[in-house]
Amino acid sequence: MIWLTWRQHRAQALATLIGIGAIGVLLLITGPRIASAFHELHACLVVPGQDCSLLRESFDQRFNGLGFLVPVFIVVPLLMGVFLGAPLIAREVEQGTHRLAWTQSVTRGRWALTKIGLVSAFTVAAAGLFAWMVSKWSWPLVAASDDRFGFGVFDLRGITPIAYAMFALALGTAVGALVRKTLPAMAITLGGFVAVRAVVELLLRPRYLPAQTISYSFLQESPRAGLGDWILRSRVFDPTGHFVSSNGNISVNPSVLAQACPGIPSTPGFGGKDEVGRCLTRLGVKIVDTYQPGSRYWLFQGIESAIFLLLAAGLVVLAMWLIRRRIS
Amino acid sequence: MNTTALEASSLSRRYGSTWALQDCSLSLPTARVIALVGPNGAGKTTLLHLATGLLQPTSGSIRVLGEVPGADPGILGRVGFVAQEMPLYRNFTVAEMLRFGAQLNPTWDQDLAVGRLESLSIPLAQKVGTLSGGQRGQVSLAIALAKRPELLLLDEPLASLDPLARRDFLAALMESVAEHGVSVVLSSHLVSDLERVCDHLVVLRNGRVAVAGDIAGLIRTHRLVSGPRHTGALGGVGEVIDRTDTDRQTVALVRTDGPILDPAWVVREVDLEEIVLGYLGAREGSSAPADPTLRAVRSAHSEVGS
Q1: How many domains does the structure of chain A reveal?
Q2: What topology does CATH give the domain B4-206?
Q3: CB neighbours (10 Å) of residue A271?
Q4: A163-192 pLDDT, tens per residue?
């Protein structure tokens, strides 16, 4: 069975490895440059209180062009599922060879489990390699931006790409067993994967655990800056009603400010930043952040991976049931 | 050794609201070459798929070699199957197809498979997809035989073959039947091909068994009688299977144990094809008109036979 599975799927397996190899070469070329550029920025960031915004800006600008890689990387787990999973059962049924395979001295249950098991093992290894490469390569970029939870970051690093690939594989297998035609199965797998990923990304991930809030004074940096938090919302809270308009725009009217804090001149260019900040704090104007703490990163990675692995397990059960009971 | 190759009891299988096989009871002996005959849609493939365990019955039961088909590797290994269109992995080489068989069957006989294909000059290194239909048929047969089954089920193996390949295929089949004593069930909608090789007959019609039995016995007990046009029931000729009344003449296929003595009838012996056509064309009720599709099949058979 091991030889048979390899023989039937070696083309897809080789294509997958070539694709990951090509990505690997790209990462090896760009990686050292990113790392050395970050070295400089990092030297600034480790000094508390130092203003690194200029360095950060130039770093960001320099590597902004790599943004095109995000959509490329995002689809890698999906492609594995579409090209390995969807044809797994569908092509057999399409060509009638399931009747050949299922009438040898191996029950179709064992046949299917062996195939799914071997292809899954390959997928875990390939997706794991991919996720490890991307995680290592993108570390400086993530450290510079202090964003680990967003789209194109959380879902490209750590263990989530492995879970996505397993889900895509199981979805392709089950859909293939259901529709029994390779191309429609690929199309449905693609659509289904994107839909589930979008729902989890947009609706579930921010709610894995209750979000926390922190408030801090206007015109100051958040005391949680640099902790890698996932800021879900950042709002200005204004008990006076003078500074935040109904549409959310902030406009600090100097005359209002001067009235409240007599030390501040009422002309434009109204005093220093710290002075205005203290005044606003006294008036109760503050920023309220709703966030998921950065310390929850691996917990969230685990929860998201568990969701996709559970879905994958359910789909494998469905595929097995279809194979044993519904296909002849 | 079990003496029943296939035993079905009230076996039925439904697809949606259509009965592909209905209340089918059969007992097929081992060490025979059994022809499973009927027009397309009669339920031949359904019966064979039930016998391999590919399909589960809607109701009733089926046993092959005394066991539930497809239930475990044991019975799977004892039954060889060549599906319709003879599916093979087209991008495999012939040698890889044999490796497939060797890996999935503990009883695999590699020498038998290689020997067969070499004697037919089928190159082992060639891709299956580039073989001729006849060669693909021989590869399918070699794989089914090399697992050393006790019962071999073949679904329309001749349909995709040209007459020469058909003859070679049947010769190869007969050779291995003689050599290994394997029981064979062979489905076809062409009777003429089967006459030379089969010794047992099952005729399926509209998902039901129209007739089943030993071919020599069937030929012995059936007669074709003809005489002046009769309007009423035919008496003294045994059981009337099928009857055609023209303006001047009545011709009937009858089943009888003894001789037909009435001098009004011209009595003639029948061949296998006439028996099959008689059962396929038989009216199910006395007044119901015969199914037009069956009539069409019947005339197609007549053309093949002529």
Answers
A1: 2
A2: Rossmann fold (3.40.50)
A3: 18
A4: 999 999 999 999 999 999 999 999 999 999
